[in-house]
Amino acid sequence: MPHLTQQLVLGSSSIYRRELLQRLQIPFEICSPDIDETPLPGEVPRETALRLAEKKARAVALVYPDGLIIGADQVAVLESTPLGKPLTHENAVRQLRLLSGREVIFYTALSLFNSRTNSIQTRLTLSHVKFRELNDQKIENYLVKEQPYNCAGSAKSEGLGIALIERIVGDDPNGLIGLPLIALVEMLSHEGIEVI
Hints:
Helices cover 29% and strands 27% of the residues. By secondary structure, it is α/β, with parallel strands linked by helices. Strand 1 (7-11), helix 1 and strand 2 form a beta-alpha-beta unit. The N and C termini lie close together (8 Å).
């Protein structure tokens, strides 16, 4: 297990990000940032994801002034339309009908903020997700079983949502779930933390 001279902190309330980070077998704390995630007027999705990942890391750094803080954010886009979290069953049905047979781009931003040195590293990974043709029965069956109302695009690829997907092409297989580990390993290395 790597020896850490600073506390590593995941600035997220996502259980999926926590599970991904656990794969690296490094000790870490969790602190949920309380920030406004509303996109700014005229802000493009990739900028929103990058800004929010950094904002989350900096917000958590106020609680951990000597920590290495991981912030992450994801924005899904269909053509030029951002897809938010559906929050309700009805919104998820509408969203999945819209996504049927189409491709969505997921922009996943990652920030690693060193509170001690006030330095930050950021990366953006892309995942192109092609959805299968979905009829109302498949959508309803999926939503009843999975209830993905807190996931942008209404499809959790780490769960049953994988059955809705025809193809995934991306920079990092973990990016779609919300924490690009390939980029994170490189960023940690720049901070002197070697995972293996």
